[in-house]
Amino acid sequence: MPQEDKIVVHWLNFSRAQRIIWLLDELNLSYELKIYERTKEYRAPKELDEVHPLGKSPVVEITKPDGEVIQLVESGWIVQYLLENYDVDGKFKQANAQDSNQVNYFLHYTEGTLQPLLVGLLVNQMATKVPPFPANWIAGAVVKGINAKYYGPELEKNLKYLNGIAAAQHAKGSKYMVGNKLSGADIILSFPIVSIFTTGRSVHPTVIQEFPELYKYYQNLSQEKGLKDVDEKVAKHERSPLKL
Amino acid sequence: MPQEDKIVVHWLNFSRAQRIIWLLDELNLSYELKIYERTKEYRAPKELDEVHPLGKSPVVEITKPDGEVIQLVESGWIVQYLLENYDVDGKFKQANAQDSNQVNYFLHYTEGTLQPLLVGLLVNQMATKVPPFPANWIAGAVVKGINAKYYGPELEKNLKYLNGIAAAQHAKGSKYMVGNKLSGADIILSFPIVSIFTTGRSVHPTVIQEFPELYKYYQNLSQEKGLKDVDEKVAKHERSPLKL
């Protein structure tokens, strides 16, 4: 049966939106990709405000055959909605209720706990590098203090937590976060996990040594064909306006 | 039928956990309340680390008659789980799929977008008041810069967005965020909305004048019997170790 619903993804470069494209591909759904580029201050451009009042990315717009339009924002909710409505072959169906609950939990955890810590660190990092902030030791020292007192220890706690879950999964012979197949949990976690082991290393220089099971998880994740395909698809738009 | 599942709520004073108690009361569920008090640095105490590795509150523990224990964290997920599993009378059942989706969206939005901005502002506010940060104008100026550049405008955008939704609901004769009855959306939003109009006013002094529809929503929400009952229930434990 040809896909009846028309899907548009509003996508900002260097954003959490990659994950949604990955999931749409895994679900064999067709979609139109609308691309937006960051401003020189690393923010979303004004055009995204016309798509959704919060000017966020990703935004998924689904047009039903009867003309009804459903607009989805919040990555965790988008993943939940797509899995609930479009996994017609049960590719992402979990083996039991516990695993299914665990996937849903990760959809909330990733965006509600892990990602805000990384955003807080990024905002503080930018505070020492981007006008109108002075690139001097005073701003640096205050930001360092805030990071040392709050964001650093909180991130550490989360890395340890995730490392423990990855260890338990590896011990069971699974390279995924829940059960033993790719799930929404891996897809939602991919963005922060990749950023922790690439751009995030300046925040925590010994992340690979201290959290080897999470690093192994990251390595396996980065070899997922679906993720590699998406990376390739969007590579030509991934020009960062800032060296962070 | 007497309630078969045993429910324990691990609750930190001055935290997002009030909402879970409110929902449990609305669902007529019995639960045991375990209370934890904040440290003098306004953080969760170490004992919460023994409940869950992230040391978070709220944590809900459900023990099934067969001994299975389900541990729930992340407020959005806890609300989703409780509504999916314990709304036996359909008290929170929505009128249609659109409203049901909108409630689920708010469970992600509140914790994934709105609350992290308030946490970021709180962390920065503490950075100028709590040791080891210096309570001086340098830290204050840097923090003010970060707030002016990121947290302030983002919060403004969200307040405008929520004010618009409240306005549309009020125009339809509803005092709630979705449909025309109390839902998980109101319960999850209650904590940040209350804090915006009480503790948050220093961040945005004209919040009442600029966002009158959201203020009206807040006023109605604060008159909800269930919320007032919870406030009364926990009032004796609500001692803040800090004047913020």
Automatic annotation (TrEMBL), chains A, B:
Q: In its UniProt entry, what is this protein called?
A: Glutathione S-transferase
Q: What's the domain of life for this entry? A: Eukaryota
Task: Give every GST C-terminal domain span.
Answer: 96-242
InterPro entries in the cross-refs: Glutathione-S-Trfase_C-like, Glutathione-S-Trfase_C_sf, Glutathione_S-Trfase, Glutathione_S-Trfase_N, GST_C, Thioredoxin-like_sf
| One Pfam family cited in the UniProt record for this chain | GST_C_3
Ranges for domain GST N-terminal come to 4-90
Q: Which positions make up the signal peptide?
A: none
Q: What's the family?
A: Belongs to the GST superfamily.
